[in-house]
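Recall the central idea of this unit: under ordinary conditions, the amino acid sequence of a chain determines the structure it adopts. In this exercise we apply that idea directly, starting from the sequence alone.
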Amino acid sequence: MADSQHKPKEPTIENRKARHDYFIEETLECGLKLTGTEVKSVRNGQVSLAEGYVMATAIPLSLILHGVHIAEYAPANPAHQHLPTRPRNLLANKREIRKLADRSAQRGYTLIPLKIYILRGRAKLLVGVARGKQKGDKREAIAHREHKREMDRAMSRRR
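Accordingly, the structure predicted from this sequence is:
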């Protein structure tokens, strides 16, 4: 029991730029099919989700993660290393995959990785169905955030 209290917490890597560039309408938690060195790199937090996207294929019905960089695990034998940006399969229910494939086929929608984390020893990826923001939408969000910040400051000064 004492050992479990002293375990280092695995990091959660988040795609912060995605929330700035897209309206996230729906999310789905998927499993990731990774090799041993990839899992160790994810546990160390050596992942970049910024350039990543998810493609849904019809035959065979599957979700594939593209463009996500998982760094090589330095202590591993070079013969057992993985390619940093290889396509990776996502694990989800067939009904969920079909639903995401239908949504991504609509004009203006795309599937993007939002967050990668370890849950009960398994690598998980949060995938979002996203619609792109226009420049005006981004400015509106920034103005709203600044307005909220000013209100919070005024309320804290009042106390």
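The CA atoms of residues 30 and 92 lie 5 Å apart.
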